[in-house]
Amino acid sequence: MGAFESFADFLAMNGYAFYVWLSYGLAFLLIVALFLWSKWQRKSIEQEIVQQQQVRNIRQQQVNSEMKL
Amino acid sequence: MFKWLHPYAKPEKAYQLSLAFQRFFMPLAICGLIVGCIWGLVFAPTDYQQSDSARIMYIHVPAAIWSMGVYMSMGIAGFCALVWQIKLLEISVLAMAPIGAAFTAIALFTGSLWGKPMWGTWWVWDARLTSELILLFLYMGVFALFQSFDDKRTGAKAACILAVIGMINVPIIHYSVEWWNTLHQGASITKLDKPSIAPSMLWPLLINIVSVLCLFIAFTCYRFATELLRAESHRKWVLEILGK
């Protein structure tokens, strides 16, 4: 398999397994965390805007009904 | 060209364009990173001096290159935002700062994990490592300045000024390995003559460098769109997009 004799050799990374796999793992985790955080920000701002709009609609209805009285 | 660009200065056009860019570059980045990492981890030859610890290079180098590249684009965007008072560019600076910070953090700890077996130490206070750490603090400072004023525009202006001033650090990082004695090796591919690295290692590295650029573009566009919604939350076009 590629530069390695076996899958076990690949995992062992010639004794550097800890350093290689930890750096790949942490890099992956950090990118995923950034992605999830950006998604969460997007969702919360969407909800905020929709709520603002609902509040505005309710106020508008109140003003309209007061005008009729 | 400016005639073609002009409609995109409108926030809703910029929003749509950035989401279209994100949809294009995100799959490209993911596919490229999968190919580049598997090539680098499995098929690239083992380094004759550093053995398999050299495989950390395939993420360390792209992250380090773009930690500087992101800062340059952020600084240029900040400069233009200050000079021409363009609000969309201020928002793009805010979108880019956390991405650059993430790339810098990746470059720092992969470097540390590479340094331990090869240099015998996790960290030294030499020019390359220290200036890269300062870059991380600059990113954090830019991001923090946005949040630290009650008036959003004042905060954005302060953050842009820091982004512009901080650009002085980027050439210092790049040339630190030439100007000072350091444990860190010199440049292998970002120099003018032939790259001093075997093609069998250069290819996966180049794929990852391009993929991380695509990842940066995709993330920036996505975060830019979010921040644009926040900044324009009272506008009609935002309500039309979200309300339906």
Rounded radius of gyration of chain A (Å): 27 Å
Oligomeric form: heterodimer
User: Distance N terminus to C terminus of chain B?
Assistant: 34 Å
Q: How much of the sequence of chain A is in beta strands?
A: under 5%
DSSP summary: helix tally of chain B:
9
Number of strands of chain B: 0
Number of helices of chain A: 2
Please explain how this structure is put together.
The complex is a heterodimer of chains A (69) and B (244). In chain A, 84% of the residues lie in helices and 0% in strands. Chain A has one domain (7-68). Chain A has two helices and no strands. By secondary structure, chain A is an all-alpha fold. Chain A has helices at residues 7-12, 17-68. Chain B is mainly alpha-helical and 244 residues long. Chain B has a single domain (21-45, 52-187, 197-243), classed as Four Helix Bundle (Hemerythrin (Met), subunit A). In chain B, 76% of the residues lie in helices and 0% in strands. In chain B, helix 3 runs antiparallel to helix 4 (87-119). Chain B is globular. The mean pLDDT of chain B is 89. The A-B interface holds A 1-4, 10, 13-16, 19-20, 22-24, 26-27, 30-31, 34-35, 37-38, 41-42, 45-46, 48-50, 52-53 and B 37, 41-46, 51-53, 55-56, 59-60, 63, 98-99, 102, 105-106, 109-110, 113-114, 116-117, 215, 219, 222-223, 225-226, 229-230, 233-234, 238-239, 242-243.
